[in-house]
Amino acid sequence: MPDTEFVEAIYQRYLGRAADEVGKAHYLHLLGDGWRRARVLKDLRRSAEARCYAQYRRRRVAIADFMRQEQPPLLPTDLRRLPLPKPRIALLGTCLAEGLLQVALDQGWPMRHYLADSGLQNVGPEIAPDQFDAVLVNLTLRSILGMAVDGGEGDLFHLRSDLDITQVQEQALMRLRQVMDRLLVGMPAGLPVFFLAFLEPPPQLFGVFGRNRHRSLYALVRALNDAMEQALVEQGRAYFFEINDIRQYYGDATAYDGYDAHYTHHSLSAVSLQGEWIYRDILERLEGAMRVLRAEDPVKLIITDLDNTLWRGVLAEEDEIVPWQHTEGWPLGYAEALLECKRRGILLAICSKNDEGPTRERFQQLWGQRLRLEDFCSVQINWQPKSQNIAEILRITNMLPDYALFIDDNPLEIAEVTREYPQIRTLTGDPERWRHVLLYAPETQVAQVTEESGQRTALVQAKKVRDAEAQSMDRDAWLQSLNLTLRFDRIVDAGHSRYARALELLNRTNQFNTTGQRWSNAEMQDWLASGGWLLAARGEDRFANHGLVALALLRGHGIEQVVLSCRVFGLGIESALLVEALRQMQEHGHADFVGHFTATGRNDACRDFWPAHGFTQEAGSSLWRGSMEPDAPTWIRSEGG
């Protein structure tokens, strides 16, 4: 190869970077003076940079080998099915963020580092929204503390007796908010922004008998994290990104530089084993957070076996049952994870081969009030094939198998179910792993826990009673007997009390969703600011208050998206919602209307929504046009609007 290409090649191979102009000119000059290439190569490899890079590569290989053999990552991928490209990240921070950048680039992440201090005098970088999927901000602790201390020296103030640390904390909290506000003002609309938590120093600084949790740097940094989280929740356009639990999972011994440098340096090491793991999991958590915001492939229903799954052993074979012997250890942790998933709004169900009556009694005997059968929206205990019982659970919950997770200790039962439902996700094998997966997998996370989340199980149980009654009555008479009432809300900004639930319904609905579009919080707020608004319908009948169950996105004369909760299919709520939407749009001067439909492969339930209400499809497009208001269901009473 030509000399120029040779120099470029050895720089990449032995320094891991492109040749700089000075270095390239130096070696080209030596080659021109008669140096052989072997001598040039030897000279380059003797340089301090080459020796450092060789050491780094050896460490990287050792770390990679060890990581393949040892401790599993904190963030599980057991439930992941959709291979998606890694998000494009704009990383804002000082040199302290370079370790994260290096790991990201080594693992193929499309990340760009913008050098940005956390001072108020600095102007944030201009970030092109079409080039990135998210922004990750690493604030500099020393800068925040420096602005809070007279003289600007924020390194050792916490050990000065002449400084009031309470006043410093108040100043630091104020400066933190100012810095965050300054950064957010310059962020592109619709781009999710994540603020990394500050690394919290170890509490043991003032000695064994010192008051380490009171008026200390440890307490101050924790207060900064608390304030950062609260401020981001209140403004609703960015997110607090916790990383201290990842540190705790792997340990700080060689990762956190507070043991070697000083506590306010606030840095991790990318060349240590633990530092490598921590940065890797920060990236994995960021990717998972993006999945959660987009509601990509979530788990909405967990179906669990009982014997050797929710408790140790087969209770029917026990002569005497001592509860703690069957629930202590991993079963108690598994139950804890199930209840946390229920709090997040995930439905729970039981599918077990057993005699129902005795098994219900044993369940109560074992779990008492800690875990109750009422926590499960469906309990199927019999000797039928488990695939048949799961079919009944899916029918009751009106759930697609794509969003269900089946957990059973017996691989044969797993195989029988997956033959009937290839789309269903499953867990088996090591039961100590189940709790971890349920608590940490992105597929079981939610962007926000709403009021409806805690009521979801009771609402499905009410649906079972309602559906059972429908089987014994004439349909028209049954609909009239429901005493169904809809109350409408007009949502024009994120300050509305039902905004969070509306966004949740929009992003978690698949079957009755006319376009399938997902919305981030920032995207929705920008859409509302552009003149759009949400018409939300809350439903209540004599069985239950169902909360917010239907939503239409309206702008101008367009109905851009309609969604309906699967819990209320077949009641005509979508028709009443459309009637109200058209009525309100007519009040704003519109006489013709445009609806949108995009087939997603999962939304066949609403394929006929527009033609059934008198809309006609525009040739060759996804648009449906109409001008006549359809008849409102006579069995539904509408209020509000």
UniProtKB/TrEMBL annotation:
Database matches in InterPro entries: Acyl_CoA_acyltransferase, DUF4214, FkbH_domain, GNAT_dom, HAD-like_sf, HAD_sf, HAD_SF_ppase_IIIC, SGNH_hydro_sf
Domain N-acetyltransferase: 489-633
GO terms for MF: acyltransferase activity, transferring groups other than amino-acyl groups; hydrolase activity, acting on ester bonds
Domain of life: Bacteria
SUPFAM superfamilies: Acyl-CoA N-acyltransferases (Nat) (SSF55729), HAD-like (SSF56784)
Name of the protein in question: N-acetyltransferase domain-containing protein
High-level lineage: Bacteria, Pseudomonadati, Pseudomonadota, Acidithiobacillia, Acidithiobacillales
